[in-house]
């Protein structure tokens, strides 16, 4: 499916005099101050959609790799050559061997924190340029995009592994290097997660639909899964100091969070259907890998050897199943939003569809209308209907799309 290539506009809402004064005097919260960088970046930076798709797929694989739970006793239930296969597989995403304490990771730790500091300084630099010239040069925007939307998200999981490596290292070893790994790893992890969260929020607020790795109308569910799953690498390391049942409790909580995210993906937070399908497949794989952990942990005859096959097979099956589910939902919605000759009262017809059952449901109808250039979306009937509903304030950031999508 072709990438979305339309613009969206954010409708103006009535504001208090205090907020209006903040705008006039250029005061505001962090989001307001950083927003110009992301808005210009989304407008000016153009890269092939397939490259962004690869980046997104790698980032999701990287996050899902944490469900191998390398700091748990289950990970040790392997035999050769699968021990090496699992080790190298995790290293592809962690950039280090997270369970190897015979070699130092000091160089990578320094690089990790240095990139985090540079990211903050670069953002401040670009905002200073915008303050001086009221614009940011295009080459600077490309560098900002590569740093903020590719490098920073990719380093979230490795930073968590650096901290986790130090936490487990202190249990059986001594040395200041493990304390530094914990401190610097956690600082880097905090920086990268904050920048990633900031980027996701501001892209959702932007008036331009982009093909960046995580272009969403609703950012909270996806960012919750990525950040919490990455944090689980640190938690699994901490659980080494407690009874083994903590791992089980953590796995159950992680499954519940992932199921919640899975349900939210059903409402299409991404404005490209294939991204929703991909995210749904990864959520399903997360649940299955956690169940796989319980099976290996409590059934002695099972080994960790086959886990990599579970990873691959469930992703494939999840993508196939997700494609079917999302296609059916979008097809039904698309048909309902197609012009009906026997409909004389459009608002009553839309009301019969229960579009405003909740804000997520309404958002899903709007996204389908946007993606497929549906009749009742193009003529404004759908947006007008939603704007008259009690939940319209929750939908203001997605309801006023000014140009129709181009579909092949």
UniProtKB/TrEMBL annotation:
<feature type="transmembrane region" description="Helical">
    <location>
        <begin position="245"/>
        <end position="265"/>
    </location>
</feature>
<keyword id="KW-0472">Membrane</keyword>
<feature type="transmembrane region" description="Helical">
    <location>
        <begin position="136"/>
        <end position="158"/>
    </location>
</feature>
<feature type="transmembrane region" description="Helical">
    <location>
        <begin position="49"/>
        <end position="71"/>
    </location>
</feature>
<keyword id="KW-0812">Transmembrane</keyword>
<feature type="transmembrane region" description="Helical">
    <location>
        <begin position="304"/>
        <end position="326"/>
    </location>
</feature>
<protein>
    <submittedName>
        <fullName>Uncharacterized protein</fullName>
    </submittedName>
</protein>
<feature type="transmembrane region" description="Helical">
    <location>
        <begin position="219"/>
        <end position="239"/>
    </location>
</feature>
<keyword id="KW-1133">Transmembrane helix</keyword>
<feature type="transmembrane region" description="Helical">
    <location>
        <begin position="277"/>
        <end position="298"/>
    </location>
</feature>
<feature type="transmembrane region" description="Helical">
    <location>
        <begin position="178"/>
        <end position="198"/>
    </location>
</feature>
<feature type="transmembrane region" description="Helical">
    <location>
        <begin position="105"/>
        <end position="129"/>
    </location>
</feature>
């Amino acid at each position: 499916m072709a990438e979305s290539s339309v613009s969206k506009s954010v409708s103006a809402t009535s504001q208090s005099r205090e907020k209006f004064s903040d705008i006039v005097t250029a005061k505001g919260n962090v989001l307001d101050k950083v927003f110009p960088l992301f808005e210009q970046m989304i407008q000016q930076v153009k890269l092939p959609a397939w490259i962004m798709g690869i980046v997104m797929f790698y980032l999701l694989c990287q996050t899902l790799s944490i469900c191998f739970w390398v700091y748990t006793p289950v990970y040790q239930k392997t035999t050769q050559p699968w021990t090496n296969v699992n080790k190298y597989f995790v290293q592809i995403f962690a950039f280090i061997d997270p369970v190897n304490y015979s070699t130092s990771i000091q160089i990578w730790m320094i690089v990790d924190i240095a990139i985090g500091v540079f990211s903050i300084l670069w953002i401040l630099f670009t905002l200073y340029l915008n303050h001086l010239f009221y614009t940011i040069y295009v080459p600077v925007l490309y560098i900002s995009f590569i740093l903020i939307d590719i490098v920073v998200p990719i380093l979230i999981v490795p930073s968590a592994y650096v901290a986790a490596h130090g936490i487990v290292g202190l249990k059986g070893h001594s040395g200041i290097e493990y304390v530094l790994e914990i401190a610097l790893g956690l600082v880097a992890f905090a920086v990268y997660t904050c920048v990633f969260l900031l980027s996701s929020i501001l892209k959702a607020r932007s008036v331009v639909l982009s093909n960046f790795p995580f272009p969403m109308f609703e950012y909270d569910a996806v960012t919750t899964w990525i950040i919490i799953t990455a944090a689980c690498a640190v938690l699994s390391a901490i659980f080494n100091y407690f009874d083994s049942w903590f791992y089980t409790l953590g796995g159950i909580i992680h499954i519940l969070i992932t199921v919640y995210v899975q349900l939210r993906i059903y409402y299409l937070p991404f404005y490209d259907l294939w991204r929703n399908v991909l995210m749904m497949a990864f959520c399903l794989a997360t649940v299955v890998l956690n169940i796989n952990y319980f099976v290996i942990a409590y059934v002695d005859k099972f080994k960790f050897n086959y886990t990599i096959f579970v990873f691959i097979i469930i992703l494939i099956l999840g993508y196939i199943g997700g494609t079917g589910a999302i296609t059916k939902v979008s097809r039904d919605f698309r048909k309902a939003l197609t012009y009906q000759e026997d409909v004389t009262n459009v608002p009553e017809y839309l009301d019969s569809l229960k579009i405003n059952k909740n804000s997520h449901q309404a958002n899903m109808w709007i996204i389908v209308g946007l993606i497929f250039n549906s009749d009742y979306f193009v003529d404004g009937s759908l947006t007008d209907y939603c704007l008259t509903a009690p939940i319209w304030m929750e939908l203001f950031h997605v309801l006023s799309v000014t140009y129709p999508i181009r579909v092949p």
